[in-house]
Amino acid sequence: MATHVEGRKMFLAGEWVDGTQWIDVIDPQDGALIDRVPAATKEDMEACIRKAQEGARIAARMPVVDRMRIIGKAADYISSNTEHYARTIAKESSKTIREARKEVGRAVETLRLSAEEARRITGETIPFDQSPGGIGKVGYYRRFPLGIIGAITPFNDPLNLVAHKVGPAIASGNAIIVKPATVTPLSALLLAQAFSHAGLPEKILSVITGRGGEIGDVLVEHPAVRMISFTGGAETGIEIIKKAGLKKVGMELGSNSPVIVLKDADLEEAVASSVSGAFWAAGQNCLGVQRVYIEDRVFDSFKQQFIEQTERYIVGDKQSELTDMGPLITENEAKRVEGLVQEALDKGATLETGGERDGAFYPPTVLSDVPGDCTLAAEEIFGPVVLLYSVKNLDEAIEQANAVDYGLHAGIFTKNLNHAHRAIEELEVGGVMINDSSDFRIDAMPFGGVKQSGLGREGVKFAIQEMTDTKVICFKLA
């Protein structure tokens, strides 16, 4: 059946512009052509950065009340068009329509938080006379925008993770250039549409569609771009750091998040939370539950309940209200996950359920007895696969949880406050969720990790801090 293609434009410094080459946007569920977007060139990105330099000056002079009004109006526009935004997310990404609606709601919340935090970019007075050389001086510090923010965003949350960069950047008086994931550009363009509708002055925001190999290095390496905010894989993040030069970088690089279930846990709650945390967005989630360490006395019961709930998951049409999980973002990604699972099985792991790929679909899959030298045990799966381990006690669980190069979030289920606090102190992660899975986040909290899980923190207030510099002002009194 023929597919109608609208042929979208990209948002270059406030103007909707065509390209000379195009990128097809494909529905991963059935391979259908959804739309086409321009494949920007190196020259397009260079022109965008030149215009953004003027946009940065415009943004810095914009009164806070105007920043708040524009961001709030963009949030209202998205909220009033929720279904259109959700359908777009569910077409171009892996998310089901129910997951997509939740993402739209979170993006609205992210922008409204950004508008609120714009009024809270404050400084403090400094008692200079605490030092003998400071007697007779008064002053303070303020936060000032960096200038141009370069944002590179992933496919798994194609609207809200863009909002997490655009909202704080505009709130703090910066210009921002977004390079969205090549496979999911439409949601980012819809965000630009909301800001255009809200009256954001031209040259402050750009959403440039294209291939990373063509335009990514230009954005990363250009000296006028004062910060790169990247969400994606660790390997790419490390390459960006090498190329960026002397500028700020914010890196959210994923994880292979652990959950610990102790014998005193509420097993029903632990199972339900961990299953949901493992298979949201087909497991393509940096916070997704990947490794579960269960105290041996409750291991068999937990495993049985976990498998039963996993097997009740409905996998299928993303646009159906009944579907729990859709496909992976591409068939190649499903093949990659399939290969990782097969490697583990070849080395002695036990397949408890799942494991049979169908095109881009890979079912919720549970493994046990996974050897430590398997890729699945040490690296991020980014797919719907969970590893269950039996452990003797909390000591062993913490030791195994920390025995990887990642550390974004962890969860622990226990009724014992001492055990909870030990986990808080000893788990090498950026966030510990007690009696919840690793897959918990609100958009106002500081978000980020340690080790190969990243640098810096997102979350609106904390992203604003990353996107501004402090300036000290000191008056010598007569």
TrEMBL record:
Keywords: Oxidoreductase. The keyword Cytoplasm does not apply. Its EC number is 1.2.1.97. The keyword Oxidoreductase applies. Pfam families: Aldedh. Gene3D superfamilies: Aldehyde Dehydrogenase, Chain A, domain 1, Aldehyde Dehydrogenase, Chain A, domain 2. It catalyses: (2S)-3-sulfolactaldehyde + NAD(+) + H2O = (2S)-3-sulfolactate + NADH + 2 H(+). Belongs to the aldehyde dehydrogenase family. This is 3-sulfolactaldehyde dehydrogenase. The lineage of its organism: Bacteria, Bacillati, Bacillota, Bacilli, Bacillales.
